[in-house]
From TrEMBL:
Record has Hydrolase as a keyword: yes
Keyword Transmembrane helix: no
PANTHER family, per the entry: L-ASCORBATE-6-PHOSPHATE LACTONASE ULAG-RELATED, UPF0173 METAL-DEPENDENT HYDROLASE MJ1163-RELATED
Name of this protein: MBL fold metallo-hydrolase
Highest taxon listed in the record's lineage: Bacteria
One annotated GO molecular function: hydrolase activity
InterPro entries (UniProt xref): Metallo-B-lactamas (IPR001279), RibonucZ/Hydroxyglut_hydro (IPR036866), UPF0173_UPF0282_UlaG_hydrolase (IPR050114)
One Pfam family in the UniProt entry: Lactamase_B_2
Lineage: Bacteria, Bacillati, Actinomycetota, Actinomycetes, Streptosporangiales
Keywords, sorted A to Z: Hydrolase
Domain Metallo-beta-lactamase: 22-215
Length: 248
């Protein structure tokens, strides 16, 4: 049995603590109010600040960075935070830009007894990869897990390789990146899952624990808590800035 403590800092940023390790996902610590340009006519405004500062979080053993090229997953303060982190695990292309260990989907690395495997993401509609770039999720496996792997999906829409990953991996705990991201310039096209998409994805697996991040704090997150609740997604909500401990 392994107990894992999760602390949601805001947006996609999550502190994951277990067996003496402290991991942080997608560091975002900028103050609210700024508008960020994502390229190709897309932009977003940060509307909520982090629940914890980098100083309150303290040192971490590694950062799991789904991608480095969008500010809602790695902002200016997040980049400054990386300077004191001994290990950054990210996409292969991201590692070429910022350093760290780069993984392509299906590739793995180890941290102590934990195997960390990159899982596939498509951060937009079909054929959008040249615009949206590389993104990965993370599957974490270590001896003594009660329910199975811990899966952090990363920013992705619902598509076949994601569903195949759910069926193959059979995660015991899943952290979903939601938000139903859309931009006015691209109309109805989505760039992350909605609550309804997540319900479909959960039909491909039977996790004991279901959580969500990347659904609040930014103006381009159009499927927030209300939409997730309406979708009847069976998840446990993280209390913002406070630890929640689960058996994983």
């Amino acid at each position: 049995m392994t107990e894992v403590t999760f602390t949601h800092v805001g947006g996609p940023t999550l502190l994951v603590e277990f067996e003496g390790l402290r991991l942080l996902t997608d560091p975002t610590f900028d103050a609210p109010g700024r508008r960020y340009d994502f390229g190709w006519g897309t932009s977003s405004t940060k509307v909520a600040g982090p629940a914890l500062t980098p100083e309150e979080i303290g040192p971490v053993d590694a950062v799991l960075l789904s991608h480095d090229h969008h500010d809602d997953n790695l902002d200016a303060a997040g980049r400054a935070f990386l300077k004191d982190v001994p290990l950054v695990i990210t996409t292969h292309s991201g590692a070429a830009r910022i350093g760290g260990t780069g993984l392509r989907p299906g590739e793995s690395t180890r941290l102590n007894d934990v195997t960390i495997t990159a899982t596939p993401c498509r951060h937009g509609p079909p054929l959008s990869h040249p615009i949206v770039g590389d993104v990965i999720g993370f599957a974490l496996e270590w001896p003594g897990q009660t329910h199975g792997p811990l899966w952090i999906t990363g920013d992705t829409v619902l598509y076949a390789p994601l569903r195949e990953t759910a069926r193959r991996l059979r995660p015991g705990t899943v952290v979903l990146h939601l938000g139903g991201v859309r931009f006015p310039i691209t109309g109805p096209l989505r760039y992350t899952m909605t609550g309804r998409d997540a319900v479909t994805l959960l039909g491909d697996m039977a996790p004991a624990n279901v959580f969500a991040v990347h659904w609040e704090g930014w103006s381009h997150f159009l499927d927030g808590r209300e939409g997730i609740v309406q979708a009847q997604l069976p998840l446990t909500w993280f209390p913002m800035g406070e630890g929640l401990t689960a058996e994983v």
